[in-house]
Amino acid sequence: MSQPRLLLLAGGALALTALGASRPRYGGELRVVVAGSPAPEDPALADTPADAAISWLTAPALCRLDANLRPAPVLTDEVTRLGPQRLRIGLGGSRATPAAIAERWERLSRTATLSPYRALLYPLRDEGRRLTGRVTDDALELSLAFPWPDLERSLCHPALGIPGNHGAFLSNRARTPLLANPAHAAGRPFVDRLLLAVASERDAARRLELNQAEVLLGAGEDSSPAPPPALSATYLAYRPSRVGASLGRSVEAAIDRADLTRYFVRGPAVPMSALLPPALMPQPTLARPPPPASESRDVTLLYDAGLDDQRAVAERLQVKLHDRGYRVALKALSRGELRRRWAQGDFDLMLHAVLLPPLPGPALAVVLDLAGRHDLLPTELRPIGALADPAERDAKVRQRAEALRETLPLIPLYAQGLAVRSSSQILPPASDGQGLPLLDDLFLVR
Amino acid sequence: MNKAVLLLWLGGSAALGGERAPTTAVARTARALAAQVAGSGAESPLAVSVSAPTPELARGFFAALAPELSRVGLSALPLEAAPPEAERAAVAAGGRTLMRVALSVERGLFSARGDLFRVRPNFWAGVSGTRSGPGAALASSTEVDAHALALAAPLLQAPEGLLAPLRLLPSALVLLPSPTAALAAADLDGDGRDEVVVLTDRELQLFSPTGTLLARRSLRELPASATPCREPFGVLAVSGAQVGYFSGRHGRGEWVELQGRQLTVVGPLERPVVAVGATRLEGTWTPGQNTFRIAPLPAPVVHAATFLGPTGAQVLAVLPDGTGSWLWPDSSRAPVPLSALGAASALVDLDGDGQPELATTSAEFLPRPDVVRVTDAGQAVLWEVPLERGRILQLVPADLDGDRQPELVAGVWLPDGTAELRVLRRAGP
After folding, report:
1. Low-confidence ranges of chain B (pLDDT < 70)
2. Which chain B residues are closer than 8 Å to A12 by Cβ?
3. pLDDT digit string, tens, across residues B159-213
4. What number of other Cβ atoms are within 10 A of residue A295's Cβ?
5. Which helix (H) or strand (E) holds B175?
6. Which of B133, B183, B388, B409 could be cross-linked to B118 through a Cys-Cys bond (beta carbons 3.0 to 4.6 Å apart)?
7. Do A441 and B362 touch (CB under 8 A)?
C-alpha cells in the first residue's frame, strides 16, 4: 500500500469494524461511476481529473507523486541520477519496456499527436523527441539539455502514462469490467474487478445512494478528508491574427470568473486570474479593464463536446462577447479533434483544459506550450532550472508567470478539482499529489 | 526488602563506594550529571527536582545522585514539587541552586536532561527576583539496562478477573523509514540476547537488542517478482544460525548467516518458509496477494507463528478473514479454532510456565488504538496493552536482555508512513 494511502488511513476518522486480520482483503468487484462523458483512451488527452484517474488504472505513468509530492515508483524499479544531467530509469520489474516508453513519449512531439504535455519533457536533450536510441533491455537513459531538478517528478504526470496492460487493471476493448492485473509492477489491486460506468450527474449520485456503486467521481460534494488540489485549468486560447489584439481586453471586461465557478462549472472549482491556478500561485485581484471600442467580428469558439462545463462557459462567453460586438459561433469538437486544431493553430477562440502538474515550474512549461509559445521554453525554463533551491525556483516561476500573463494569447478562467464520494463499503479513497483518487488502492471492507 | 536496603539497591553501585566505576545506567548517569554540576560552579545546597516516567525511577535516581554530588562537595535537597513549582519550593527549602532533571527511557537509552540555576534571591534586585550566578544545561545518556527498565516500568493494572497485573514498559527501539514486511528475533551472535531481524521491501536489517544496526543487506540484486504484492509483505524464518527471508516484491529469497558484521548468503530460498526448530516448512505464495499456503495448514495464511517448548512444537496460523488455528504438528492435541486475530500475532510464554500464550492485535483494519492482547488458548484475555499510535503489522517474542524472559517486539506502521519497532518489556509483577 502506498504511503499517501497510509497517511490518509491513519489520519482518517473511521472506525472500521470489518475483521480482516488487520490487513486489506483481496477480492470482490469495485463499482465506479463517473458523472460526465467517457474518458478518452489516450492518456495525453486526459485533461480532466476524472479522465486522468480512469486512464491511470490501465495506463499509469512511471511514478506517482504522493501527497508530499515525492515520487513513488509505479512502473520503475528506481530513477537514479547518474550525473547532474543524466538520469537512468530502471525497469527490471516492469512489463513496460524502455522502448515502449520512449515511443510513447516521442509521440507527444509528433505533428499528428502534438500535445502541450510535451513541455514536461522539454528539458531533455532534443526535447525528448529522440529517445528510442537511448534504451537498453531494462533501462532508459535520459540526458538533460540543461539542469531541471523537477524532471523526476514531472515524469509522474498522468499524460505521460504508458498504455498496454502495464496498469493495475488490464485494459480491454469494452473498457469494463477491468480485471486486476496480477503482474502490475506496484502489485495487483486488492479488488478482482473494477466496473466502470458513465452517467449523468443525477444518475451517478442516485447509483451511489442506492449502493449500486462504491465510488462516484465528478459530482456532488467531495467527501475526502483533505480536498485535493484544483489543477485542471481551463483557459480561453485565441489567435490574435484572427480575432484582433483587443479580444483579450474585451473578454477581461466582459467576464466575471467568480460567476463562472459559482453558476456555470461543476465544483470543486476556483476562479483563476493568474497564469497558474491558486494551488500553484497567489491570484492577483484584477480590476476589470474598461471595454475597448466595440468591434464587429464573426468568430468561432471551439470547445470540448465531452465537457458540459465548457459548453456552459462557451454559451456564457457567446452572450457576453455579443455585447462587445463579437458574433460568436459555438462549435463542439471531440477532444482529439480539438487537440488537432490546437496543434495546427486552426482556431479563432478555443476553450482548452489541461491537467497541470502540482509543480509550478513544469506547470508553467505546459501553459507556455498551450499558449503556442513553445519558442519561449528555452529562455524561460533554463534560468528557472538553474536555481537549486526549490523555494527560490518556485518563486522565480511565479514571478515569470506574472510577467508573462499579459503577453500570452491565453486567458485563464478557472481551475477544477475532482469531487470524490464513496460508499460505506470502502474507505474513502486517498488522493495523490496530483489530486487524483487512488482507485487501485481500494478494497471492500464488508 | 526494607526501605534502607531498597534505597541502596535503587542507588546502585554509586552509593556503595567512592571511586568504583558505576555499574548501572542510573548510577552512570548520576555520576555524569554530578560532574557537570560541579563544573558549572553551582553553589550548595542544591535543591533537586527530578521528573520521570515513574516515582520509583525519580527516587532511585536521586538516591544515586545525592552521594555523587556529595563526592564533589555539594549537598542535595530532594524536592517533591513538579517543575513549575520547583523554583518556589527550592527557595522555601533553603536551596541556593535549583537543579531540574527529566528522565526518560526511549530507544534503548536512559537519558537525563535538565538545567540548573541559582535561586538565592539577589538582595539588590528588589522584588523582581532577577536570576544571577552560574547556570548550566545538563544532559547525559547511556544504554538502558534491566535496572533502569525495572524502575521505569509502570504498573499496569490487569482488568478485573485477570490472573495478575503485568508490569510492561512499551518503548521505542528503532525508527525505520519504511514499513516492515516481516519481523523475527533470534540470538544470531551467541551472546545470549536476541537480535531483531527486519525485512522491508528494500532491505534486510539486523538490529542489536538495544536497537543498534548491526548489519544490512540490500534486496536490489534479487529479481523482481512476476506477481508482486502491493503491501509490504514477506516471510522471515530463523533456523539455527540461519535466517531465511523472502519479500513479496521479489522473485526469490535467500538464506543468510551473520558472519562478523556481514549477512553472508548461504543459499537461495525459492519458496516462502516457516521454521519450526530445525524443520523448515516450505510453501507457495498466493500470486500478488498477502498470503501464502504452507503444508500442513489447510488454507492460505497471512501469518504463521511457531513456538518450540518443552512439550514440543506449536503453530499459529492466521487467515485473511481474522480467523485462525492453534495447531500441534505432532497431533498431540486437536487444533484450536481462533477468531478476531490480527495479522500481527505470536505464541509467547510471557508468564514463564512453559506453555505459550497467544499475543495478538486488533483484527480491525484501522483500529483506534491498536491493542496488544495476550490470551490463553481459549482466547480469554489475560493482559491487554493499548498502543500509543500507529498500526501493528508484526509481533514477535524476543529475549532482548538475556534474562530468559521474552519481550514482545512489534513492527508498527506510523501515521507519517514511516515505521517503528516497539518493545513491550516485561518488568515483573
Report:
1. 1-19, 81-84, 107, 121-134, 153-169, 426-429
2. 366
3. 444 455 555 667 888 999 989 999 999 999 888 889 999 999 999 999 998 888 9
4. 15
5. strand B166-176
6. B133
7. no
Distance CA A314, CA A330 (A): 7
Q: CB B290 to CB A3 under 8 A?
A: no
Helix, strand, or coil (residue B226): coil
DSSP A372: T
- Flag whether pLDDT at A290 surpasses 90: no
Model confidence band, residue A347 (pLDDT cutoffs 50, 70, 90)? very high
Model pTM score: 0.76
Q: What angle do CA A215, A221, A227 make, to 5 degrees?
A: 85
Query: Which ipTM score applies to this complex?
Result: 0.78
Helix (H, G, I), strand (E, B) or coil at A46: coil
Which of the 8 DSSP states describes residue B124? G
Q: Are strands B336-338 and B345-348 parallel, antiparallel or unpaired?
A: unpaired
Interface of B with A in 178-237 (CB under 8 A): 179, 223-232
Whether the per-residue pLDDT at A14 is higher than 70: the answer is no
The string of DSSP codes covering B306-365 is: EEEETTEEEEEEE-TTS-EEEE-TT-SSPPEEE-S--SSEEEE-SSSSSSPEEEE---BS
First to last CA, chain B: 15
- SS3 of B160, please? coil
The residues near B11 (Cβ < 8 Å, ≥ 6 apart) are: B26, B27, B60, B63, B64, B67
Number of Cβ within 10 Å of residue A290's Cβ equals: 7
Q: Please answer whether residues A166 and A184 qualify as being in contact, where contact means their C-beta atoms are separated by less than 8 angstroms.
A: yes
Partners of residue A17 in chain B, C-beta under 8 Å? 364
- How many inter-chain contacts (A to B, CB under 8 Å) are there? 123
User: Could you say which DSSP state residue B260 is in?
Assistant: T
- Give the mean pLDDT of A384-409: 93
Give B378-423 as a 3 state SS string. CCCEEEEEECCCCEEEEEEEECCCCCCCCEEEEEEECCCCCEEEEE
Q: Which tens digit of pLDDT belongs to each residue from A45-100? A: 999 999 999 999 999 999 999 988 999 889 887 788 888 888 888 876 667 778 88
CB A111 within 8 A of CB A343: yes
- Which residues in chain B are closer than 8 Å to A23, comparing Cβ atoms? 231, 290, 302, 320, 343, 365
CA distances from B72 to B8, B115, B340 (A): 20, 18, 59
Find out whether B52 and B58 touch, Cβ atoms under 8 Å: yes
- Residue-averaged pLDDT of chain A: 86
- Residues B194, B188: Cα–Cα separation, whole Å: 7
A90 touches chain B (CB under 8 A): no
- Closest CB to A19 among B228, B303, B321: B321
- Using the Cβ of B289 and the Cβ atoms of chain A, whether some distance falls under 8 Å is answered with yes
From A3, A16, A182, residue closest to B287, measured CB to CB = A182
